[in-house]
Amino acid sequence: MKKVSLFIPCTVDIILPEIGEETTYLLERLGVSPIYHEKQTCCGQPAINAGYVDEAKKSAKHFIEVFGDDEVVVSPSGSCLHTAKYRYPELLSDEPVWLRRAEELSSRLFELSQYIVDVLGVEDVGASFEGTVTYHESCQILRGLGVSEQPKKLITAVNGAEFVPLNSADKCCGFGGEFANNYPDISEEMVKDKVQNYIASGADLLVLCEPGCLLNINGYLSRNHPEKKALHIATLLADTGREVRL
Amino acid sequence: MKIKTEQFVEVARREMADLNSRAFLQLLPPVIAAMRKAAMATFPDPDAATEYSRAIRAEVVARLPELLEEFEANAIARGVKVIWARDAEEANDFILNLALKRGIKYVTKGKSMVSEELGTNDVLIKNGIEAFETDLGEFIAQQLNRPPFHIVGPAVNVSVQEICDLFMEKAGMEEATTDPVELGYAARVYLRDKFHHLEMGITGVNMAVAETGSIINVENEGNIRLTKSSPRVQVSVMSLEKVVPTMRDAIHVLRLLCRNCTGQSISSYVSIDTGPKKDDEIDGPEELYIVIVDNGRSDLYGDVKAREALRCIRCGACLNHCPVYATIGGYPYGWAYSGPMGQVLNPLLLGLDRTQDLYRACTLCGACKEVCPSGIDHPSMFLYYRSKDVKGDSKLKGKKRDWKEVGIFKIFTLASTLPWLWNLGARLIRPFYNRNAKNGVVSHISGLFEGWFRKRDLPAMPAKTFHERWKDIEKRLS
Amino acid sequence: MVRNARDEILGKLRAVHRADVPQRPEVPSLNETAFDREEMIAKFTEALFLQTGVVHRVKDNQEALDKLAEIAKEEKLEKVMASTDDVIAPLDLPSWGKENGIQILTAGDFKDRNSFKDAVFDEVNAGITGANFAVAESGTLGLIHDRDQARLISLAPILHIAIVPTERFVPIYESAIEKVFEDINAVPGQFTFITGPSMTADIQATIFRGMHGPRKLIVILTG
User: Fold this and answer.
1) Does C212 touch chain B (CB under 8 A)?
2) ipTM score here?
3) Among the four A123, B2, B54, B260, which has the fewest Cβ within 10 Å?
4) Nearest chain B Cα to A194, which residue?
């Protein structure tokens, strides 16, 4: 069986581990053998985004050491994957050996929906959901990785699910890591706008592929519209019947 | 122009509460973005056309000194007087002294962002020479003493009632009206007199063509053509980076500029000046001065990353696609340049220390980079500034961060390189993090993420991290 | 002082190692480059119509003058500033003006700039010019300004009427620019692309035509 190395980002590891579990079961159900390097920690995105490049380099090198020999690495996070794929070479541009390793590794990194559709060639993963579903295009996944059709195909193939469009689906939800906490006035307006579009879409469910966006949107929904929820695509597709609290 | 970049947060807060501005921001950027898309579709291959424009602008920055020399030589050969100005003082001194020498009582100004950067109007006015902004939006913003709200529509958010009051007080309008067309006509009447008797006009420059020594101005209103055609003296001010290699390059960039700026294929008027008027012409400038302004740009030219900012052609597409700009409008950016391009340029010209919010108040969503016809990678620029700020880079005037923030990142990084510390850290944080948890939801944690918790919850940390669950998961897998 | 500024600025720029110039991608030609004349005229007309320009097509100079008379009546023209370029001069507008009760002024009638400006800003209700080019891609006129084509004629009056022989049609801007800049010693002081009337949307994004320049542009194509 094909081995696939799981890259579980720190948000999932610490706050949303169920998404990691769902990713694992989903991949297994699709016929691959997930492995998990327990030495993995954090890709360094928070440090990069805040400008701490010396620190970020350390995290990057650790990441490259952990995943460097894997044939395929799959992650339920697009922003962390984007960091490892595209920011690492920038970060390590002055260290030729590490740069080469980073560049080499980047072609073996996949976001979850991208892996399922493009590599496994699967759209119907055997999941069910009765109702209308809409999709938020996370910035790092859409513009960073160029991944957009894949999640939508997966959603559309879910048994009983009807895909409905989301207005301004590609507009940023206002997370941006430290931005959400450092510029709350602006971030709140942006997530409010995203949620208003979600409600206006009439969809029963909002699905996305990025844990950061998920925390942001669900965090706002929990406080302001508790009757509505957003789900990570792994949760939808794993379809384990888990009750999602937040 | 007064620098208010350090008031970003409070001005943003004020603007987000301004219903008029919010109404515009919901309406205008998406409309221009849609028009842009339609206009770009007139190219058989819009992506190739954008890439070509990006290549031209990258070439301009790579060849800047030789292109400026070529431009100067060709302009001088055509009778232009080329003036170099290291800073605002030199540029303004030249313009003022020229005006005084020629006995100028007032000037009209075509829209020129670099002249706002230099504060030219203030210098003239202080010395008894009136300076009338003539672009309608700039005219209104000037009369209200406000910075531009948007590159293309500097006063588009101002209410008609306010404009009516303003025109009655300052623009000789006699009958009250809130009809935008009638208000526009009132401005036409008031400013027409100024154009008619004009002796010296000041414009910006959209493009300076090295191959021919020509300058190009793009407009819809006609105020720039009037400012150039009516007076005997024309002064056109450009920052270094406005040069392009050839006329063909200029035409290609022109197409991208107009489509990105207003969603038009081309603006109503494009005027190309190559030297002053000929002897037998009855209008047009007898004297044409082109002022090439540095104002800190040559200092950052040695920084190959930072100088990417010099590619900008001031089209404003980034403003129209930025979700932050769409929420706060132009005022919070606090200086001549707003939106993502202001976030890219202002820190370089003013220092990272005075502009921290400008390069930190960005989610790095990349919508700007995607549309930029000059190929600027805004998110990457902001990350660069942030890193220079953390390091306290002296050239860019990085401020360094406070010890608490530095400490957090050092600890977090250490934990990221030592898995045992990582897992221990998660275990130690959990009880503190979950102290106020109710039904799996955390609504506040004292001293942590206060900005977040104002309007958002977080999930409680589950009993086990993914790390801690793996052994069991592995067992359950076939 | 000024000389030092130049050397200092250029010195700093030149001191930096020159970066590589990126390769330019292939860009397919605009569709208009394959148009024949009738297609160019159709495209021009459609594009200019969208900018509220009005386009009339006539057979020859005589019909152009007849059309002009119609327009003069509609627009209640009394005094007009006309250029003396190679399209307008052969029309003998002064005679036409006499026949139609319209006073025709030209730049040559004025001894100096100021008296010319007084007339073109305050006295005339239209400017009539020819054009050197009609660019199909966007309904754009190209005007070379010189002694016979003063700049303010197509700019200051509230109405601009342009008469353009259809031989002057070109598909894209480059076709015009190539000709204008062919001989660097014979380049005009100003060359202008005009696409529709003057306009703004600066007040509440409401479109207003005739901001500082003409409110209306009428183009008469001959031939």
Assistant:
1) yes
2) 0.97
3) B2
4) B323
